[in-house]
Amino acid sequence: MWEHMWCLVCCNKEEMQKMKNLGSIGSSGRLSTEECEDEQISKLPISTFQSKEEEIERKKTEVREKVELQLGRAEEETRRLAHIWEELEVLDDPLRKEVAIVRKKIDLAIRDLKPLGQNYQKKEKEYKEALEAFNEKNKEKSHLVTTLVELLTESERQRMKKLEELCKTIDSLSRKQ
């Protein structure tokens, strides 16, 4: 900006110098060098101001164009990011629902397993008690069968002994006769 202002000042000085070189305009209706310089000096701030305003407007337009370009890019990026976000949301939803459904089923299975487990333990305890009672009764039966066999064997032995004695007695009686 300072370079631009310096250029304007230098250009105006050159124009003033040219006017001086032309000489003064006489009383024949032409301007004298002094009058020309005064007019040039009074025009100088206006033209400098106008050139500065033009430069400001030009730069303002450039900046506005750059900002509009950046806004356009930002809007496009925003649209792209929104689209990606929507795709992520769609991708997440089915997975979340499926996971929730599976978790709910697991919770139901756990809830159903608890009483089944308790029932199993109860039945297993009853089975063990029944098996123990069965084995005990089976031992008792085996012992009783063994005792019965022993008693029957002893009974048979005693009866055989008695029969032998009776046979001997009958034999001895029959010999005596």
UniProtKB/TrEMBL annotation:
Pfam families: Transcrip_act. InterPro entries: GORAB. It comes from the Eukaryota. This is RAB6-interacting golgin.
